[in-house]
Amino acid sequence: MTVDISNLIIATPVAVSSSNPVALELNGAEAIASYPSIVKVLSDGSIQFSAPTKGASSKSTHRTRCEWTETEEWTLASAQDHWNYQTMTLTKVNAAQKVVIAQMHVRGDDSPPVKVFWNKGNITLGFRRTYNQVDPVNSTLLKGVPLGGRFIVSIHTTSAGVVNVTAKYNGVSGSSGNLQLDSTWAPRVFEFHGGIYNQVDYTDTTPADDGSVCIISELSLIHR
């Protein structure tokens, strides 16, 4: 299945310029054309994302990513259902063996309500019931998802703030069950993210070949 990222924004591990070390964000079609070593269309139409651990990051972190983001922000009440559905394969992972693979992110804040990880072969979840909650509640959705294994991860959120996160691999599935966001999230605006976001800080001694690579073979974003 061909994955279309032309209407998404891609956060890359490439610096804006030689004088500006902050991570470059650009349209998906531009990312494919300009940085094929980072964002590559494979022969079957899937998309490969690469994020070396040592690279450009946002102003607030020392962690690199190659991650897509929706361009249209939305509120819970803007549609009855909000879906982020990805079929993915993680083919390489950083030394910490931990990457964020999907998010329901809140605009203008560093504490999203939903963050999904591949963590040492398990799919795990961090959930914040309340806006600006300091620490998320962490849980494991699915164990035994190896490098090279194709899996599905989905985030479903309703207008009533009910969140359900699921993961499926090799005929086995796991679910968060229904998680309720409280009313503090109602006025906030969101966007879904996905791809790879390294959960390790780079330093001067980080090996050049450390990093993560994923293949996204299906991507569906629905608000209706």
Give an overview of the whole structure.
This is Polysaccharide lyase family 7 protein. Keywords: Lyase. It comes from Pseudomonas kurunegalensis. The chain is mostly beta strands and 224 residues long. It has one helix at residues 28-34, and strands spanning 8-17, 20-27, 39-41, 47-52, 65-70, 81-92, 98-106, 114-119, 122-127, 137-142, 150-158, 162-169, 172-175, 179-180, 190-198, 211-223. An 8-stranded antiparallel β-sheet has the order 2-1-5-15-7-8-9-10. Strands 3, 4, 6, 11, 12, 13, 14 and 16 form an 8-stranded antiparallel β-sheet that branches. A hairpin with a 7-residue loop joins β7 and β8. The longest helix has 7 residues, at 28-34. The protein is globular and about 45 Å long. The model has no long low-confidence stretch (mean pLDDT 96).
Topology:
Layout: E1 8-17, E2 20-27, H1 28-34, E3 39-41, E4 47-52, E5 65-70, E6 81-92, E7 98-106, E8 114-119, E9 122-127, E10 137-142, E11 150-158, E12 162-169, E13 172-175, E14 179-180, E15 190-198, E16 211-223
Antiparallel strand pairs: 1-2, 1-5, 3-4, 4-16, 5-15, 6-11, 6-16, 7-8, 7-15, 8-9, 9-10, 11-12, 12-13, 12-14
Keywords: Lyase
Organism: Pseudomonas kurunegalensis
Protein name: Polysaccharide lyase family 7 protein
